[in-house]
Amino acid sequence: MNEMVIFIQSPPGLSEVVLNEWTDKAALLQISYQVLKFEQSGIEIQTDQASLAMILPYLKTPNRVLIRLEHFKARDFPKLFSKTKKMNWLKWMADVPEKIRVTSSQSRLIHSDRIEETVRDAIAQYFRAQPPKKVLQQKWSEAPSELFVRLLDDEVLFSIDAAGERLGVRGYRNHVGPASMRENLAAACLSAFLQNETLKGPFTLADPMMGAGTILLEASEWNRPNLGRLYYFIHWNSISATSVDLATNELMLIGSDLNPKMIETTKLNIANLKTQKREWKIILEDFLKSNTQLPDVQWVLSNAPYGERLEVQEGFFKNMIPALKRKYPNARIALLMPSDKWNLTKSKNQKIVDFKNSGLEVSLREIMT
Ligand SMILES: C[S@@+](CC[C@H](N)C(=O)[O-])C[C@H]1O[C@@H](n2cnc3c(N)ncnc32)[C@H](O)[C@@H]1O
């Protein structure tokens, strides 16, 4: 069965949302797994190679999925060297990785540059002693060139990234705005607000301050595998990625922004989707000045400008919520804003989830009537 341990790395504050997504999608794909550990930084799971290959392109909220290679105790450099040299590196790569990322805490070996150098030398010696055959060199020529080494309480743990790079990189959002959010954070906001059952559709969702359209694009693709990029683990194992939709949902996605550049940007991103297109309405408008109501919209989710990278008009935070309630009279409305800006809205609201966006404390809250 090729059992393996993986670590689903979560954005800070969002590990519960990440676990919910895993649980829901694993059930739909009927894969078997066992949760070993739940931590603030992520979830350790035991599963098998085929299951990981199946679920990987469907996971939208994690930062990364790491494959745990091996772990052992090492309190000095000679031990680190000899143990590292004995690992079965050919199973994962054909050369010393380009990048080695070291973190160390509560351990005798603490100097990260020296740890990296020792690991690098040990792997180089391993490959000198058993040079990989041509076919393996070819197989690993596209392997991720990044190795993660973590030391905690003198326990050394090696991992590699199953996807090769951040999972947030989708391949379709090639155009961004000045304050665009990471795709996996947008997906996490959607999952936390609409809940995974609702995301199976049908539903109508609006983002009145859509920027590059990130939230709407994530809603469009939530139940679909991402076909816009390579996932190395699938590629190495010559497994063909499953490309079924987990729900055949009908969606209406309505995006607007007052900046004409953002309208073009979103349209370009939508055109990049490799999957069947949804029903979209993209509108140039300042929602504060709009007189048209959209009574059919059920959900409104938006990432308001923070007044930092993007300036806002006088009284923006106070006027925003009455304007949204007028425009979407039947919708449940949630906004993502810096935690300290919420008091400017003078609104009654309920916290959905707090997390960090580019190092800033932000809070996703639902507006209450
Ligand atoms: C924080 S950005 C949204 C980023 C978006 N989530 C993304 O990932 O690209 C806020 C957006 O709100 C737009 N905006 C600001 N005031 C607006 C208004 N009154 N009406 C419509 N759009 C507005 C800005 O042009 C900007 O694109």
Q: Could you name the CATH homologous superfamily of the largest domain?
A: Vaccinia Virus protein VP39
- Give the C-level CATH assignment of the largest domain: Alpha Beta
* Order of SSEs: EHEEHEHEHHEEHEHHEHEEHEEE
Which strand order spans the largest sheet, edge to edge or round the barrel? 2-3-1-4-7-6-5
Quote the average pLDDT: 92
End-to-end gap: 53 Å
Entry summary:
This protein is an alpha/beta fold and 369 residues long. Helices cover 29% and strands 27% of the residues.
Question: Can you tell me about this structure?
Answer:
It is a single chain. The protein is α/β, with parallel strands linked by helices and 369 residues long. It has two domains: 3-161, VC0802-like (2-Layer Sandwich); 183-367, 3-Layer(aba) Sandwich (Rossmann fold), CATH 3.40.50.150. The protein is 29% helix and 27% strand. The chain has ten helices and 14 strands. It has helices at 15-29, 49-55, 77-85, 112-129, 134-139, 183-198, 214-221, 232-236, 260-271, 316-327, and strands at 3-9, 34-39, 42-48, 64-73, 99-105, 146-152, 155-161, 203-207, 251-257, 279-284, 299-303, 332-338, 349-357, 360-367. The strands form two sheets. It has a seven-stranded mixed β-sheet with strand order 2-3-1-4-7-6-5. Strands 10-9-8-11-12-14-13 form a seven-stranded mixed β-sheet, sandwiched between helices. Helix 1 packs across helix 6 (183-198), helix 3 (77-85) runs parallel beside helix 4 and helix 6 (183-198) packs across helix 7. S-adenosylmethionine is lined by residues 177, 179-181, 208-209, 211-212, 214-215, 257-259, 262, 286-288, 303, 305, 310.
